[in-house]
Amino acid sequence: MTTPLVRAADIAAIANVSRAAVTQWRKRHKDFPAPKEAADSDSPLFDRAEVEQWLANRKPAHRNQPAGSAASALTPTMLTRRINDHLRGISGTHESIDLAGAGLVAEYLTRALSTGVELEGFASALSTATLPAGAHRPSTLIGIDGPELGTWLAFLGSASPKLALALAPFDSLPTETVNFLHTLSQGVKDLPLQEFLGVYDILIRDEHRGNVADPVELSQFLADLAAPALESGVVLDPAAGVGFTLLNVGENRDLSLVGVDINVATHATAVRRAILANRTVDLRVGNSLGDDPAAGVFADAVISTPPWGLRDFGPAVDLYAPRWVFGRPSPRSDGIWLQQAIEHLTDGGRAFIVTTRSELSRSGQPETLRHELLRQGAIEAIITLPTGIFAPYTHIATAIWVLARPGQTVDRDRVLLADVLTPRNSRQPPSFGETVEQYRQWRTNGTIRDTKQALLVPVRELLEPGVGLVPETWLQRRNAPTPQELLNQIHTAQQALADTRIPAIDVLPDFTPTTAIRREKLSKLPGVTIHRGAVLRDPTDTDSQSGIPILTGAVLSEYVKTGILEPTRFIDPELLRNAPLTQPGDIFVNGIGRIPARKIDIEGWAVASHAFLIRVDPTAAIDADYLVTCINAETRTQLSEVAGAPRMQLSKIDIPVIPLDDQRRISDVIDDLATTTAAVERHLTRLHDLARLVETAVGAGALTTS
Asked: What are the residue boundaries of the DNA methylase adenine-specific domain, all occurrences included (predicted)?
């Protein structure tokens, strides 16, 4: 049996090294596997199994876990990387995501049948299916080859049309596909069945680049918003994509799930996800805005992130149909999805539809539709989502419409407007939980507690021309200070400005120009030791209890600005080998970017792989602060010569060698100048704040002169 062929770039990915390292291996090691194809080309192909064996025989620094080793130590993320490595060596007509998904489904069903797992949904038909004469039930696909494999896969697909769709990539079985299936099955052989879906989901998000998969946090947020009224009933997603949100809403609940998508390939992926989730889901193919495969389905919840801004609905969509009871839809408006959702609601049901934020304030037909929905009491809440929630695929601002059948909102005379803030610190999660609680109070009691991010607005005010439904606008209006409050703020800012004290700069010492001064390489200075940061190869992270915190430029910058030292990653101590941990008085140099060298007072941290740690012997004739000054000066020179964010090259830095007393005097001068600079910056900031407050007060008509 052969294995997939791989290129040098693939070998580099497998071994976690650069492509140049692979080139050097080929030149220096006579036992490196010979190419199997295109040996004379710039991109020869190698046998993956031979390469993995060669890597396994290398010293531990280059060893990568070979095929067939225990998968129990592999996370879903690691498994998906391995799967992608193998897919690179396969050429075929099927998309890689389809082949990988079909392989996971085939192995899942094989193991589930052999262990007596009760299959639900599309796979339930297998419990009564009859094997062809002479065939047997394998416990895994590992090692099954030839006609036996084809017979078994055909049996799995014959049980129902949806199973046939899920396994369609195996309608033909070329050697490379069989090899891939064996490799995948071997890789997941120790993975619990309930974790297969997690592996597939990572592959989907990587492959589809977010086009058909809601962000995890959004999917959970929608599920939490809908949860109180959904212990049972029907949930519909008219633009289900691969079904992330639909399955998330239905998790651990007795719900009937119905999903529709217009794309057959996306539908097939959703079918595979439903099989791996072992969940009954009614998945249909078609145009929800046209012939609507879900016509006649009335749902307790309609939850969807439909495609936005459709320029042309197509000939299948009748814009004059009676179904559009709130007004004729217009192209590029997402309002058609709002109407479609309300059409499918039961009495007491709710729709949660994600659209672009611009739909809340656009004029013309979108405004006419908003007003009609408001007048009929169909809008219960508007929730704006954090900026960039769909990043990096799109940075379009978005919002959730919470809708009901006309007159069935909590209070048809008021609407809840809420804004989920984008946290200033990227490590902090958005305030989804707070918003969920606000909405639940609104649904249950018809009131909310007063917060800065949510308010109730009378419908009569929302019907004013041009005001829109953007929560931020209404929150700013409500939270605007009174004229007296603005005046008090101006007086406070003025007093803060008056209290700023800028220290006088001491007389500089009598500097004299040098004619010739000896310079020494930083790496050659006596008593100075340079340590590279710990080599971190994913996944190396561990928890805060057993791991050592990692010092990065971002963490240090936050510490300098706020005084808060908060690690974001931890590393297993065993992976550090001989790398030293930080001590007070060390110098941290960020290897990439524009953050200069800094003397630190941090103890017991590991330095990130792109950074350096410089340690100065206290008995050496070199002052650490002077060294920082010289490194920073050289850093600015390097940055001015190279655009972007170049990698710091400490080996090229020369340090002027002067007497130790002179070094210390110069360091004191630099420190005094830095202190004065910081005070001036504080003064300018307070001056800017005062100017902004006066402008705001004038613009709001809150003050005049006496």
From this structure: 208-421
